[in-house]
Here is the input.
Amino acid sequence: MKTFAYTIKDEVGIHARPAGLLAKKAKEFESVITLEKGGKTAAATKLMAIMSMGVKCGDTVNVTVEGADEEKAAAEMEAFFNENL
Amino acid sequence: MKKFQGKGVYGAVAVGKISLLKKADAEVKRVRVVDTDNEKTRFEQAKTLAIKQLGEIYDKALKEVGEANAAIFEIHQMMLDDEDYNDSINNIIDSQSVNAEYAVAITADNFADMFAAMDDAYMNARAADVRDISNRLINILSGNVSIETGSDEKVIICASDLAPSETVALDKDKVLAFVTAHGSSNSHTAILARNMNIPAIIGVGDEFLNEIKDGDEAIVDGYTGEIFVEPDEETRAKLLEKQRADEEKKQLLQELKGKENVTLDGRKINVYANIGSVGDIGKVLANDAGGIGLFRSEFLYLENSDYPTEEQQFNAYKKVLESMAGKKVIIRTLDIGADKKCDYFNLKPEENPALGYRAIRICLTRPEVFKTQLRALYRASVFGNLGIMFPMITSVSELEKILSICGEVKSELKSQGVEFSDKIELGIMIETPAAAIISDKLAPMVDFFSVGTNDLTQYTLACDRQNPDIEQFVDTHHEAVLRLIEMSAENAHKHGAWIGICGELGADTSLTETFLRMGIDELSVSPTFVLKVRDAVRSIDLSKS
Here is the structure.
């Protein structure tokens, strides 16, 4: 299992569009990717669930990656956060 | 005529027939089914079609309103594919043995409620997205055509609310305006309407929909948020004129914004605006005027119940100069008398006020009033690019007196250590035949002339401006007036002064070429005519005779 934490820099937080991109990205991997913030969790592949977490700018999100390709998935997801959020 | 009020989200005026949007809605019946697998297949097929439709809408939006505004339809496709949303629908079909339509409707309610309950205005608005995609599914499932204006002519679309996909799906060539009973100005519909340049009004209220019907004639004013249904002739005429002026202006502004006013053969002409109060500056800037060619300072006096103080005047002039940010501002000194009267001046009634005690004649006989204004002007001059203009000049000796008073004011300020600009231009109005005829003597004494065509015409033709009975004798293109202007232009240029026109004739584009051939350097017109005149200037070729 791999984990990393990321603090959102995008002014509007995880709004619809980046949530969509995030879900799309997460579907590329076999591993189960989970987001957690303030006790709420959501599978990274689920657009509406991610949106319903209401992640705002400045919030820290904990990301857990578990599965066969977790090394690669964790690295790429972290790169995705850095680039888009 | 019925009038309704909402909130305008895009300014423009549209006139046409109402088309009440009948959404194939919303009443979904709960039907018990035995073959739940069949319902799930129906849902899958509907979803595939919905995603395909949204793909088409995305492509259309991409072309019409740009990538940033089209992105929402990509999100809609992903929402339709969302695992939780799909699980919920399939689960309801299975567990309750119900039809797909019902399962979608219940799921839509649950997800929309979830977004609506969030502590975030942006996410609250996503409830509308969930309903939008769900309605699409339900419409496909129940075989409804989602939107049909049922008309070949352009119409004003009126609806309870419009989902973004509905806004874009409408054939733009058939839509004159959007009016909705609900909606927020942050909704995608409002944003899309702005991008499509279609007048849009939201939040008119439910009663509006009850009081209109298909085919009603209506006028939509997106500037004020007003809708007039079955308008009376007066309202109709007024708004048609507003629409015409608005369209002309938008088109001209589009073409001319930031461009120089040069004739086809390369001569630069200044097109300035005439204003009567500080409040008009907005109009000057909105019409992209190059400066202010006539600022009537009378308003300072007419608004007051006593002589305005130096400080009051200084603040007003400073504000105009600062607002115009270095562009030319020509302020005309007090032009009271004749038709403009102020009680505290105690002017006696006159037989013939146009030929009477007015303007510079008051200033020269009451120098304390004049000096107060000049001090305020000179003090304000450091805040911009000021010109001062004196009205109703008829002789060299008047101008000598004026210049000597200006000299006194300057040396007073200097001795008091008060700053003023050394680049102030001084000029006179050419509005009496006398001034035009001796313009060769006046020109060496000033930096510029500005022709007041209204008074020049009145005095030259001996036609009272205030008397409607003699209107037929007032020929504004009279050769005598034009010759006086031409004479003044020649004399101005001979002595290194420039010449402009600030009367109504300056906006008469049938004379623009005539004026430019005379050598007129500047045209100052009411703000609403600035673009029209600039357009005229740019189409003239002075090299061809």
Notes: The helical segments of chain A are 16-26, 47-52, 70-84.
